[in-house]
């Protein structure tokens, strides 16, 4: 399906229904070829309050405060979980159409507590610990046998998919809690701290030594009993964060970057991060991030720097970091990755970004490659969280985010020259490296 990974950040919703759900507006920017960003950055009506949202290659899922579970964007492989959007109409750029996701009626009334998107598939976990999956399933990433009779075949692409959420029967007794979709594989965490994987294990992403393609969930035995707090999925590699701040990795992060790079078939502790207490992790296609909760907290990145996604300006674009390197940003509250870019939300709700900007996911007025961490949103007090699709970013806020709130360095420089205003010091680095490097190797 091409060398691109989804960058959905799997999200969980509290099992206990909160007394009051904050109103959160969802603003999105970046690639919009399948309406995943909607009109003027708003795929949902401003009257809709979003609890959580995730994005894949060109589709997205969200849970609303009303309990509605919705999707929008491309439905080429049934990844929206509805038949409301056809293959052809998904590529006509019009305001996004929100599609309610209909779970099987036979299941009864349930709440969704965890959602995730892969490159062409989607999945969720209910409050009754049931796993549902839909979308492209040719490589076993749905946990359902592709030979099953209810798989629909896309005659345009010769791929098999399921167009509606379908119960993954093999996980019904596993007490599932969270789900994490990679490019063409899926990882499930259970309430008793067991990790199950399925899909394309060619590059070791299944973490249990299996390098075949399988739809049968299999446990990562080496993580049995380890209290895993969070899992992050890249194109060919994974990270797992424990409750003690320890990070494991497995798979093949540098596949396609370094010829003959061998995969890690079983989870290994990232020894260079020991001594830091890590409280957040994120994966891009070929790079990884770990956020320490030291005071001041520190961000460490490693992997490919082909689009400047490591956030270290002194490194060349051909550079590969095999061990974590510190990024000179402090007071970070959250870090997320798109396919080839990285974003950080600071504690005072300024957002910084770096890496690939070919689809304007970092913003207008920036070069195609942003080589150093640059401010794109300045101290938005209502900002609650950011999350990324492959080539877009989503801002979840208690305040409406306007297009004019997003910093455009070219406009900012003109404004500063005209007004002689130099108060926003963080804008000083936003105009660096304006050359178009879109054809440079990653």
UniProtKB/TrEMBL annotation:
Signal sequence range: none
Transmembrane feature ranges: none
Originating organism: Stentor coeruleus
RCC repeats: 67-128, 129-192, 193-244, 245-294, 297-348, 349-399
Span list, region Disordered: 1-21
Domain RCC1-like: 30-253
SUPFAM superfamilies according to UniProt: RCC1/BLIP-II
Keyword Nucleus annotated: no
Keywords attached to this entry: Guanine-nucleotide releasing factor, Repeat
The protein's name in its UniProt record: RCC1-like domain-containing protein
Regions of compositional bias (Polar residues) in chain numbering: 1-12
Tagged with keyword Transcription: no
InterPro entries according to UniProt: Ran_GTPase-activating (IPR051553), RCC1-like_dom (IPR058923), RCC1/BLIP-II (IPR009091), Reg_chr_condens (IPR000408)
